[in-house]
Amino acid sequence: MPTMAKRGLEVLQDPALNKSTAFTEAEKQALGLVGLVPDVAESEDLQLQRVILQLSQKNTDLDRYIYLVNLLDHNETLFYRTVMSDPARFLPIVYDPTIGEACLKFGHIYRQARGMYLSIARRGHVKEILSNWPEKDLRFICVTDGNRILGLGDLGANGAPIPIGKLQLYTACAGVPPQYLLPMYLDAGTNNEQYLHDPLYLGMRKTRPTTEELYSFVDEFMDAVQELFPKCCVHFEDWAGYDAVHLLERYRDKYCCYNDDIQGTAGITLAGMINAVKLKGTKLIDEKYLFLGAGSAAIGLANLLVSAMVKQGMKPKDAQARVYMFDINGLLEDTRKDLFDFQRVYAHHHPSTRDFVAAIESIKPTTIIGVSTVGGLFNQKVVETMAHINEHPVIFALSNPTDKVECTPEQAYRWSQGKAIYAAGVQFPPVHFNRQMFLPGQANNFYVFPAIGMAVFATQAKRVTDDMFIEAAQAVAGQVPSDLMKQGLLFPLQSSVLETEIQTAARVAELVFDSGLARVDRPADTVGWIRQHVYKPEYGEEVSAGKAARSETKPTGSPRVRHA
Ligand code: NAI
Q: Ligand 1 in contact with 265 (CB < 6 A)?
């Protein structure tokens, strides 16, 4: 339904309306654009060709990232057409690992506002501020307080690119239309001395508040979101482990929300584990797991893994007994006094040790999972010990960005004499070892959270549950071609990410209907129905009517205003 009209330069300055060099003659006439753009009417594919050419002239991925962000600021359709044309090539540029560098330099490379920035100093006015956002039917807010950005620590306002990039993946990977998405930075200060003293830093120059103050700010935010955008799901991203776990517990039964570091990471890692045991010919309940790192990612995965083992017939206590954790202070065991409540279930009766290799030797895990934020901790001794104990040691080195990975695939295959079943948190090229080619997979949440997002978007789900992530894990695991799995690939190919996510979203949507959480009627053909919701990076036709009109529901093209 048309709700606003724009003409001339206003059209060109609106990234959701701008077609750059692709306006037809009729559109140029109707919109007063004659003379304001080159006198051509290019196709989207020709425009894409130019973008690819210009990208090829950039020297670094950070330059390509800046170029693509700039493209998004001017022409949203062309941006998504570019990213969706070759996800395997562009996802690492718009998101991890390049985004890590973009975060570190955010205040320095900043060009234009995107999404919202809400400071704790505005407490008491959160609802009023949120209502400044021009879209009224929001379905997702991705929110960070910048306190644990990737494996880079407290970056404060420099974490703002994370929710921006994450939401781009909803669209690029699963086709969630971009107008329903709002990236949000909640500014609660930072303890990062470097940024507090950087004149170009874009956040509040205050150290972080008490937990109580922070949570009361987040409470106000969650209440305001619910009131203003009742169909909106809040996606928490890159909060410090303690806050991530506690805020999820605080809100998960009250609002539609989830934490991707906890549940998304868990979902995709579980998918990798499902395929690892398929390769070994065992079951999840036959394995023993040792985590390096006991933060939000570890706890999320351990809890989901336990739920998945319980679904395979195990008692919760027995499933928990198969999961061990080791953190910066050593093995989690029942005499440790420094543990959070949520870590205690994995602190078993066991002699204390600060030596990870000794822990491996005594626990004899079949699988080790690195979520420690520290590069290189799976050293030669660790991998050799795992290979000595296991015929096929499962080694997941999930910390990112790349320099934080616990071991590279090359190291895992070489030190285990080609026996390891390996996955990383970032993308690595194939590895040649002993005349064999191995395909190290990337346990990247982007196979899971955008699909969950699409399912929640289409069904208008009232809640996001752990079962939805287990369902997504099974759906993703089932989509790896068997010939590639034999070469060690545990996750689907990135080149077919959209199709993988449509199938995954359909499976999750079925579960949402089965659980009575949907707010829409169940369709006869779920996959076909999900496809109807998928955004296509094509220019809408609304512009040609002589008006640049906002379309409330149409998933293709995206004529509307969203820049703040
Ligand atoms: P966190 O900060 O909550 O937890 C880190 C944990 O590692 C803590 O338990 C800490 O004690 C432990 N640790 C730190 N240094 C250690 C050391 N030297 N030895 C042993 N343990 C040590 O972080 P969170 O959220 O759990 O994330 C961990 C990592 O997982 C990050 O690098 C993050 O990028 C990565 N991650 C990967 C994802 C993926 O898709 N692959 C998704 C989400 C997170």
A: yes
